[in-house]
Amino acid sequence: MNQPEASVAIQVLPDVQGEELLRIVDEVIAYIKSCGLPTCVGPFETTIEGDYDKLMDIVKQCQKICIQAGAPSVMSYVKIAFNPKDGVWSIDKKVTKHHS
User: Fold this and answer.
1) Can you count the helices (H) and strands (E) in the chain?
2) Integer Cα distance of 4 and 49 in angstroms
3) Contact at 8 Å (CB) between 71 and 15?
4) pLDDT at 99 > cutoff 90
5) H/E element, 74
6) In a domain, 43, yes or no
7) Which of 10, 18, 23, 28 is the most exposed place for a label (fewest CB within 10 A)?
8) What is the layout of strands, in order, in the sheet containing 46-50?
9) d(CA 85, CA 83)
10) Does residue 17 fall inside a structural domain?
11) Is 100 a member of any domain?
12) For the chain, what is the domain count?
């Protein structure tokens, strides 16, 4: 399998409280999973890997989903690894050994 060109970890923090926060974050995660790219959901962020431009489109849409779901604003933390020539380590390479 070829290495992905990029990897993005995103944490969205909609400006809402309680269960509403979980509902909106769950909508964002559902959207990310629907994109069909390798994804790893963690307790603080979701990691996605693939084509850099596609990942940036997903990051942009995550903000809009929060607003459309009812948050008046959203703060996001995004980490990006990008190596178009040699690729980046895959999610599996980074974490599989820790999940066995």
Assistant:
1) 3, 4
2) 6
3) yes
4) no
5) strand 74-82
6) yes
7) 18
8) 39-41, 46-50, 6-14, 74-82
9) 6
10) yes
11) no
12) 1
Residue range(s) defining the domain that contains residue 65: 6-86
Distance of CA 35 to the CA centre of its chain: 11
Q: Could you tell me the pTM of the whole model?
A: 0.92
Q: What's the CA gap between 83 and 57, in Å, rounded?
A: 18
Beta strands 6-14 and 39-41, pairing class: unpaired
Locus of tokens 């307790």: 43
Q: Given this model, what pLDDT does residue 1 score?
A: 52
Work out the angle at residue 54's Cα, subtended by the Cα atoms of residues 6 and 28, and round it to the nearest 5 degrees. 100
- The pLDDT tens digits of the residues spanning 37-95 come to 999 999 999 999 999 999 999 999 999 999 999 999 999 999 999 999 999 999 989 98
In a domain, 77, yes or no: yes
